[in-house]
Amino acid sequence: MQGRINSIQSLGAVDGPGLRYVVFMQGCPLRCVYCHNPDTWLADGGEQIEADALVRKALRYRPYWKNGGGVTLSGGEPLYQAAFVEEVFAKLHENGVHTALDTSGVGKLSEAERVLRHTDLVLCDLKFLTKADYLKHCRADFAQVERFLQLTAMKNVPLWVRHVVVPGLTDSLEHLRLVKAKAESYPNFEKLEFLPFHKLCIEKYDRLGLTFPLRDTPAMNEAWLKQLIEKL
After folding, report:
1. Residues 137 and 127: beta-carbon distance below 8 Å
2. What would the pLDDT profile of 87-141 be if each residue is shown by its tens digit?
3. Is 133 exposed, middle or buried (0-12, 13-18, 19+ CB in 10 A)?
4. Are the CB atoms for 71 and 111 separated by under 8 Å?
5. I want to staple 161 with a disulfide (CB 3.0 to 4.6 A). Which of 120, 125, 183, 222 is the partner?
6. Sequence-ordered list of residues with C-beta below 8 angstroms from that of 142, at least 6 positions apart, any chain
7. Dmax over Cα atoms in the chain, in whole Å?
8. How far apart are CA 104 and CA 112, in angstroms?
């Protein structure tokens, strides 16, 4: 089984518990207005690699995973290559490695279900809360995301919900309250992460000749975000 990956972060500390070997998969059907990895969009980009080879590369870093770490597959959208992710996770489980799926929740449910059989943790980026906003800002179907989140609950896979806080778009206290309530409505929910919008990706857009839709939007003030979270 072969797949395409964009890049690897061998010692990541923000994509799941402990230190993680984070693989950014290639290919994504979404076009989120604040996407910071536009270089992962095209399905035929990146580097082709066999599942066995990727697992071998990851296992070299096993000594760093002593305190609850493991491997996270991110993107792009990992469910865009669901069969490859399923095989990688299955092989990691054979080696007793904790697996985390960092996803937007899009993809065929039948394929996602097979991936979840070998998934220890789902990190789901809940981008918006309405069908209209998902279509406008992500070109995605909110109902599809909700079905995926329901599937994680049915499979009892621990769930961390992430939400990017963008000034003027998703930064009102009432909106954050609704995100919190939505996340807590799932019985497998464990953690909510509010991520501040930043613009470090602009260089990538310029290099690729792409327009960054939120170029004129200020980065999220982290001190203000902290105050909002405290009010919650």
Report:
1. yes
2. 999 999 999 999 999 999 998 999 999 999 999 999 999 999 999 999 999 999 9
3. middle
4. no
5. 183
6. 128, 129, 130, 131, 133, 134, 135
7. 48
8. 12
Residue 131 CB: number of other CB atoms within 10 A? Answer: 14
Buried b (16+ CB within 10 A) or exposed e, 75-89: bbbbbbbbebbbbbb
| Residue of 55, 49, 132 lying closest to 94 (CA atoms) | 55
d(CA 152, CA 7): 26
Predicted local confidence at residue 98, as pLDDT: 97
184-198: pLDDT as tens digits: 999 999 999 999 999
Say what the pTM is. 0.96
Residue 126 has which token pair? 């809940």
